[in-house]
Amino acid sequence: MDAGRGRSENIDPADQWVLNPNTGEYELRLSPSAPQSPQSPVPGPRRRPVPRPDATTARPPAVPGRQVPPPRRRRAEPEEPPGRRGRRPRKTKTKKALLWTGGTMAFVLVAAATGGYLYLKHLEGNVDTIDVGEAGASSFRKDEAFNILIIGTDKRTGAGNEGYGDKNSVGHADTTILLHVAKDRSNATAMSIPRDMIVDIPECRTKLEDGTEKVIPGLQGVRFNRSLGESGRDPGCTMDTVKEFSGITPDHFMMVDFNAVKTLTTAVNGVTVCLNRPIKDEKSKLDLPKGESKIEGEDALAFVRTRKAFSNSSDLDRIKAQQQFLGSLMRKMSSSDTLTSPTKLLKLAEAASEALTVDKAIGKVGTLKDLALELKKVPTKNITFTTVPVKDNPAEVIKATVVVNETTAPQVFDMIKNDVSFTEVKGEKKKEAAAVAARLKGTKADASEVRVRILNGGAESGSAQGQLTYLQTQEGVSKSENAGNADAEQARTTLEYAPDQADQARRLADIMGLSGSALKPGESELNAQGLPTMTLILGKDFKGAGLKLDASSAKAPDVQKSTADKVQCAG
């Protein structure tokens, strides 16, 4: 389709929505040669024409012996004040489709709104794919939580980017964000990963163009950004590195270069950012006043790349600015100003698709569409931006790198792994959360009165016996027993109990650090003495005998975070 020709002839894309008489739906005809159905005159007082898929032209009734003239287009009428002029058929369904698809994955927005399958195929051809093998999921599952690793490289690809980054760079992981989308789509977490964070890069396998595999040795104690590009490492190696230091498994990846920031911001006519003080950075060429500014193109790229101009000139300050920028871009892409403008949608579609490289599992048109529609379900107010908790590298005298903070990071990682929101979910979700939390409120039985059978449902071998020993010798839970292995493995530790055992359940939850969601009201089992007993199943999240599971609770850790719906100032 010739999307550019219509614009060069000064045809407003909004005028290219036409009625398909075969389906009764409106479609975006990008080719100016596409026929538009003429409308029949409407007798009586002028009013808004009503589109009819089976009657797009008016013909007089047939009379024997008389030739029926060809249909005529409606004659242009004098312009009248707004509200009285006869207008083209309403685009109600079109607008609903646009608003329905949301502001994510712009190139899918156009296709979902127009039903333009061929145009989607064109956009799919813009997207590059890489086979990361076992490093990622083999397919996209719409009914599960998922993790996407978003990677911004410092490779000098694209016109006008010769002056950015390292001219000899093979494309390191300059900006990396792990996006976790909850199973119920009520929330999402975007966790930034500092490029200067010291990690161990595991051995990884990459697929060459001839189909063979190359094994790339691992590295110990190096910057995270070296997980991509160096020695031929592909995004699969970066995905493996994330799993190595966090325990979180990325399912898919999306990779962009410098051009993505420039083209996407230009497509939406700029985004608004905010600074606590004026900034003039010679290195990035950023020159902005204090307060809010609208930026696009080169200025937008300078904003997300600058770091020397911020208070401590670190990558961590740059990450905060990038998170603010992404929140603003999300708000702009999902605004009605963008969603109801075919011109902006077409620009976004081209810009987003040309900037993307993804794993093969999501590289097809249908999968990209499914992914976009799942992402758009998440409210921006429940998208949390945070950063891997880090601290200065103790091995350095002159501080240049950071390391994972072993005190606070595990809780953040566990919340993501266990699909726990960093934001308060309102409405029915809030009521449900309150009901779950209420399970922990009330009287607690004495530890000596707690009867529980322990099963291993995915924890390390020997965990059930280890926890039993701890409970009996350290906590006084003497009426407990090892019941062996559970029938199936499960991700999270759970405690099932009968209604009259709620006080026992609360005591054991207090001892083990179980959240309200881990407590499952149900039925009791009979122990060896024939007495009703609670059932504790140790899941894959079990950390070891005597270690509490507080990280899976709904209380967010004390870490830096923000949400996509709020404007924050950087600097």
User: Major sheet: order of its strands?
Assistant: 3-16-11-4-5-6-17-26
Stretches where pLDDT is under 50 for at least 5 consecutive residues are 1-17, 30-115, 551-555
Arithmetic mean of pLDDT: 76
Structural class: alpha/beta
Our count of helices gives 15
**Helix share bin:** 25-40%
Biggest pleated-sheet summary: 8 strands, mixed
How would you describe the shape? elongated
Termini separation comes to 45 Å
SS strand fraction? 15-25%
Radius of gyration: 29 Å
Number of strands: 26
Overall description:
The protein is of the alpha/beta class. The chain has an 8-stranded mixed β-sheet, with helices on both faces. The relative contact order is 0.12.
What attributes characterize this protein structure?
eight-stranded mixed β-sheet; alpha/beta; disordered N terminus; 15 helices
